[in-house]
Protein backbone atom coordinates (compact mmCIF):
# COMPACT_ATOMS: atom_id res chain seq x y z
CA UNK A 1 0.00 0.00 0.00
CA UNK A 2 1.40 3.41 -0.89
CA UNK A 3 2.77 5.56 1.95
CA UNK A 4 2.32 2.81 4.54
CA UNK A 5 -1.40 3.60 4.72
CA UNK A 6 -2.51 0.04 5.15
CA UNK A 7 -6.19 0.55 5.91
CA UNK A 8 -8.26 2.85 3.74
CA UNK A 9 -11.72 3.92 4.87
CA UNK A 10 -13.87 4.81 1.87
CA UNK A 11 -16.35 7.28 3.34
CA UNK A 12 -19.28 9.46 2.35
CA UNK A 13 -23.04 9.66 2.54
CA UNK A 14 -25.35 6.84 1.50
CA UNK A 15 -25.18 6.40 -2.27
CA UNK A 16 -21.87 8.22 -2.71
CA UNK A 17 -20.41 4.98 -4.06
CA UNK A 18 -18.58 3.47 -1.09
CA UNK A 19 -19.44 -0.12 -2.06
CA UNK A 20 -18.90 0.27 -5.80
CA UNK A 21 -15.70 2.32 -5.56
CA UNK A 22 -14.39 0.43 -2.51
CA UNK A 23 -14.64 -2.94 -4.31
CA UNK A 24 -12.95 -1.63 -7.43
CA UNK A 25 -10.19 -0.01 -5.38
CA UNK A 26 -9.63 -3.24 -3.45
CA UNK A 27 -9.18 -5.13 -6.74
CA UNK A 28 -6.69 -2.56 -8.03
CA UNK A 29 -4.71 -2.52 -4.78
CA UNK A 30 -5.08 -6.29 -4.10
CA UNK A 31 -6.40 -5.69 -0.61
CA UNK A 32 -9.49 -7.32 0.92
CA UNK A 33 -12.71 -5.30 0.91
CA UNK A 34 -15.17 -5.06 3.78
CA UNK A 35 -18.53 -3.31 3.51
CA UNK A 36 -19.51 -1.50 6.71
CA UNK A 37 -23.16 -2.22 5.88
CA UNK A 38 -22.52 -5.89 6.71
CA UNK A 39 -21.43 -5.01 10.25
CA UNK A 40 -24.57 -3.18 11.40
CA UNK A 41 -26.56 -4.95 14.10
CA UNK A 42 -29.99 -6.03 12.88
CA UNK A 43 -31.66 -3.26 14.92
CA UNK A 44 -29.77 -0.61 12.94
CA UNK A 45 -30.75 -2.11 9.58
CA UNK A 46 -34.39 -2.32 10.74
CA UNK A 47 -34.32 1.29 11.87
CA UNK A 48 -32.89 2.58 8.58
CA UNK A 49 -35.21 0.35 6.51
CA UNK A 50 -38.13 1.89 8.41
CA UNK A 51 -36.97 5.35 7.34
CA UNK A 52 -35.34 6.56 10.58
CA UNK A 53 -31.78 7.82 10.68
CA UNK A 54 -29.31 6.30 13.12
CA UNK A 55 -28.14 8.41 16.06
CA UNK A 56 -24.72 8.53 17.76
CA UNK A 57 -25.71 5.78 20.19
CA UNK A 58 -26.86 3.47 17.37
CA UNK A 59 -23.60 4.00 15.50
CA UNK A 60 -21.23 3.59 18.46
CA UNK A 61 -21.02 -0.24 18.63
CA UNK A 62 -20.86 -0.46 14.85
CA UNK A 63 -17.93 1.94 14.68
CA UNK A 64 -16.15 0.05 17.46
CA UNK A 65 -16.59 -3.18 15.45
CA UNK A 66 -15.15 -1.52 12.33
CA UNK A 67 -12.23 -0.15 14.36
CA UNK A 68 -11.54 -3.71 15.58
CA UNK A 69 -11.60 -4.91 11.97
CA UNK A 70 -9.17 -2.15 10.97
CA UNK A 71 -6.77 -2.97 13.81
CA UNK A 72 -6.85 -6.66 12.80
CA UNK A 73 -5.81 -5.61 9.28
CA UNK A 74 -3.19 -3.09 10.29
CA UNK A 75 -0.37 -5.25 8.91
CA UNK A 76 -2.02 -6.97 5.94
CA UNK A 77 -4.11 -3.99 4.82
CA UNK A 78 -7.78 -3.59 3.90
CA UNK A 79 -10.32 -1.33 2.27
CA UNK A 80 -13.35 -0.64 4.47
CA UNK A 81 -16.50 1.14 3.29
CA UNK A 82 -18.02 3.18 6.10
CA UNK A 83 -20.04 6.40 6.00
CA UNK A 84 -17.86 7.89 8.83
CA UNK A 85 -19.99 11.01 8.68
CA UNK A 86 -18.74 12.86 11.78
CA UNK A 87 -15.30 13.83 12.96
CA UNK A 88 -15.69 11.95 16.23
CA UNK A 89 -16.77 8.81 14.34
CA UNK A 90 -13.52 9.03 12.39
CA UNK A 91 -11.58 9.33 15.65
CA UNK A 92 -13.25 6.16 16.91
CA UNK A 93 -12.40 4.35 13.68
CA UNK A 94 -8.77 5.47 13.87
CA UNK A 95 -8.11 4.37 17.48
CA UNK A 96 -4.89 2.38 17.63
CA UNK A 97 -4.21 2.92 13.92
CA UNK A 98 -2.31 6.22 13.91
CA UNK A 99 -0.86 6.98 10.50
CA UNK A 100 -1.73 3.55 9.10
CA UNK A 101 -5.27 4.69 8.36
CA UNK A 102 -6.31 7.04 5.56
CA UNK A 103 -9.80 8.32 4.77
CA UNK A 104 -10.94 8.53 1.15
CA UNK A 105 -13.87 10.91 0.92
CA UNK A 106 -16.32 10.45 -1.95
CA UNK A 107 -17.58 13.96 -2.58
CA UNK A 108 -20.75 14.58 -4.55
CA UNK A 109 -23.81 16.80 -4.62
CA UNK A 110 -27.19 15.93 -3.16
CA UNK A 111 -28.75 15.99 -6.64
CA UNK A 112 -26.19 13.65 -8.22
CA UNK A 113 -26.41 11.14 -5.38
CA UNK A 114 -30.21 11.35 -5.28
CA UNK A 115 -30.33 10.51 -8.98
CA UNK A 116 -28.06 7.48 -8.45
CA UNK A 117 -30.10 6.24 -5.49
CA UNK A 118 -33.29 6.52 -7.54
CA UNK A 119 -31.77 3.98 -9.93
CA UNK A 120 -30.38 1.63 -7.27
CA UNK A 121 -32.32 -1.57 -6.61
CA UNK A 122 -32.42 -4.04 -3.72
CA UNK A 123 -30.84 -1.98 -0.94
CA UNK A 124 -32.30 -1.40 2.51
CA UNK A 125 -31.38 2.30 2.70
CA UNK A 126 -34.36 4.49 1.71
CA UNK A 127 -33.86 7.59 -0.40
CA UNK A 128 -35.64 9.76 2.17
CA UNK A 129 -32.69 9.37 4.55
CA UNK A 130 -30.34 11.14 2.16
CA UNK A 131 -31.10 14.59 3.58
CA UNK A 132 -30.26 13.47 7.11
CA UNK A 133 -27.03 11.92 5.78
CA UNK A 134 -26.02 15.33 4.38
CA UNK A 135 -27.18 17.12 7.56
CA UNK A 136 -25.02 14.81 9.69
CA UNK A 137 -21.98 14.93 7.42
CA UNK A 138 -18.96 16.83 8.69
CA UNK A 139 -16.74 16.80 5.60
CA UNK A 140 -13.22 15.72 6.53
CA UNK A 141 -10.40 18.23 6.34
CA UNK A 142 -7.67 15.60 6.27
CA UNK A 143 -8.66 13.06 3.66
CA UNK A 144 -8.09 12.10 0.09
CA UNK A 145 -11.08 13.85 -1.47
CA UNK A 146 -12.34 12.81 -4.89
CA UNK A 147 -15.26 13.99 -6.96
CA UNK A 148 -17.70 11.18 -7.72
CA UNK A 149 -18.96 12.95 -10.84
CA UNK A 150 -16.84 10.62 -13.01
CA UNK A 151 -17.01 6.98 -14.06
CA UNK A 152 -16.08 4.50 -11.30
CA UNK A 153 -12.85 3.66 -13.17
CA UNK A 154 -11.84 7.34 -13.24
CA UNK A 155 -12.72 7.85 -9.58
CA UNK A 156 -10.51 4.91 -8.61
CA UNK A 157 -7.69 6.13 -10.85
CA UNK A 158 -7.84 9.52 -9.18
CA UNK A 159 -7.74 7.93 -5.69
CA UNK A 160 -4.68 5.86 -6.61
CA UNK A 161 -2.93 8.90 -8.05
CA UNK A 162 -3.57 10.90 -4.86
CA UNK A 163 -2.40 7.98 -2.70
CA UNK A 164 0.87 7.96 -4.60
CA UNK A 165 1.40 11.76 -4.51
N1 LIG B 1 -18.94 6.91 -10.15
C1 LIG B 1 -20.15 6.37 -10.36
N2 LIG B 1 -20.78 6.53 -11.54
C2 LIG B 1 -22.01 6.01 -11.76
N3 LIG B 1 -22.69 5.28 -10.84
C3 LIG B 1 -22.12 5.08 -9.65
C4 LIG B 1 -20.83 5.60 -9.34
N4 LIG B 1 -20.52 5.23 -8.07
C5 LIG B 1 -21.57 4.52 -7.62
N5 LIG B 1 -22.53 4.41 -8.55
C6 LIG B 1 -23.84 3.76 -8.42
O1 LIG B 1 -24.57 4.56 -7.47
C7 LIG B 1 -25.31 3.72 -6.60
C8 LIG B 1 -24.84 3.96 -5.16
O2 LIG B 1 -23.52 3.44 -5.02
P1 LIG B 1 -23.14 2.51 -3.80
O3 LIG B 1 -24.22 1.53 -3.49
O4 LIG B 1 -21.78 1.98 -4.05
O5 LIG B 1 -23.11 3.64 -2.64
P2 LIG B 1 -22.83 3.47 -1.08
O6 LIG B 1 -22.14 4.71 -0.65
O7 LIG B 1 -22.17 2.17 -0.80
O8 LIG B 1 -24.29 3.47 -0.49
P3 LIG B 1 -24.81 2.95 0.94
O9 LIG B 1 -24.04 3.67 1.97
O10 LIG B 1 -26.26 3.34 0.94
O11 LIG B 1 -24.58 1.47 0.98
C9 LIG B 1 -25.10 2.28 -7.06
O12 LIG B 1 -26.14 1.91 -7.92
C10 LIG B 1 -23.77 2.35 -7.81
O13 LIG B 1 -23.64 1.35 -8.78
O1 LIG C 1 -23.93 6.11 9.35
C1 LIG C 1 -24.99 5.79 8.84
O2 LIG C 1 -26.02 6.45 8.80
C2 LIG C 1 -25.06 4.46 8.19
O3 LIG C 1 -23.82 3.88 8.15
C3 LIG C 1 -25.51 4.58 6.79
O4 LIG C 1 -24.68 5.48 6.12
C4 LIG C 1 -25.58 3.23 6.16
O5 LIG C 1 -24.70 2.29 6.68
C5 LIG C 1 -25.38 3.20 4.72
O6 LIG C 1 -25.01 4.38 4.13
C6 LIG C 1 -26.59 2.60 4.13
O7 LIG C 1 -26.22 1.70 3.26
From TrEMBL:
Pfam family, one: SKI
Keyword Transferase: yes
InterPro entries per the UniProt record, alphabetical: P-loop_NTPase (IPR027417), Shikimate/glucono_kinase (IPR031322), Therm_gnt_kin (IPR006001)
EC number: 2.7.1.12
Keywords tagged on the record: ATP-binding, Kinase, Nucleotide-binding, Transferase
Pathway noted in the entry: Carbohydrate acid metabolism
UniProt enzyme class: transferase
Reaction(s) catalysed (UniProt annotation): D-gluconate + ATP = 6-phospho-D-gluconate + ADP + H(+)
Family: Belongs to the gluconokinase GntK/GntV family.
Protein name: Gluconokinase
Gene3D superfamilies cross-referenced by the UniProt entry: P-loop containing nucleotide triphosphate hydrolases (3.40.50.300)
